[in-house]
Amino acid sequence: MIDEALVFINNVLDQHLKHRFSVEGNASVLNNLTEADGSEPQVNQNKVVLTLINLEHETAKQYYGGQYRTGSNINKTNSAIHFNLDLLVTSNFDRYDEALKFLTASISFFQSNNSFNPSTFPMIPAGLVMLNFEVENSPYEKTHNLWSALSAKYRPSVIYKIRHVTVQTGQIKSSSKVVTGVNSSVTP
User: Fold this and answer.
1) CA-to-CA distance for 143 and 105, rounded, in angstroms?
2) What is the SS3 string spanning 125-151?
3) pLDDT in tens, 128-162
4) Residue 18 contacts by C-beta under 8 Å, 6 or more apart in sequence?
5) Is 87 exposed, middle or buried (0-12, 13-18, 19+ CB in 10 A)?
6) What value, to the nearest 5°, has the Cα angle with vertex 82 and ends 78 and 85?
C-alpha cells in the first residue's frame, strides 16, 4: 500500500500542477533525488520531486482489527500494520523563481487537500481509507543533515508527514462459523 499511496499522491499533485501552469508532460515525479553514483536523475529536471525519506511504524493501540465477518464465517487475520510516511517535496528547477512558484503551488495543494479519502477522491486506491497530511517542522540542523544524508544539494522543499498508511495482506489465518442461535432443548 505504501507504493500505491505514493503513486496516487504523485498523480493527483501532477494533475494539479499541470492544470495550474499548463505544463506539457509531467510536472511532478516520484523518485530519488540522486542516483547511486551521486548524479542527479534526468527525469527530475524541472519538476517537483516526491521522495520517501522515512517510514515510521504507528504503534497507537487504537488499531485492533484482525477479524471480519463474511457471510456465515468469521475470518481471522493478522492485524494490519500502520505507518506514517515522511515525504520530501522538492522543487527541482533550474530557475530559482520557478522552484519557489512550484513549491508554493504544491504547498497550496496540500493545504487545501490535507486529507484524502474515497469520498473526496474516488480514484484513491482500494485499501487506502484515509491519508492525512501535516507539515513536518524541520530546524536548520535537521534539514542540513537530511540533505547531506541524501547526498544532494539543497533545493526549496518541504516535508509532509502522511498519517496512517495501512499494510494488510488479508491472508486468512483461521475461519469459524458464526453462532446463530443456541439450542436449549435437552433430549434424554
Assistant:
1) 21
2) CCCCCCEEEEECCCCHHHHHHHHHHCC
3) 888 999 999 989 999 999 999 999 999 999 999 99
4) 26, 27
5) buried
6) 150
For 15-66, write each residue's pLDDT tens digit: 999 999 999 999 999 999 999 998 999 999 999 999 999 999 887 655 455 6
The edge-to-edge listing of strands for the beta sheet with 131-135 is 28-30, 47-58, 81-92, 157-167, 131-135, 115-116
Residue 4 in 3-state DSSP?
helix
Q: Output b/e per residue, 4-38; b: 16+ Cβ within 10 A.
A: ebbebbbebbbebbeeeeeeeeebbbbbbbbeeee
CA angle at 164 for the pair 162 and 168, rounded to the nearest 5°: 130
Cell 534526468 sits on residue: 42
Q: Which of 52, 12, 15, 57 is nearest to 33 (CA)?
A: 52
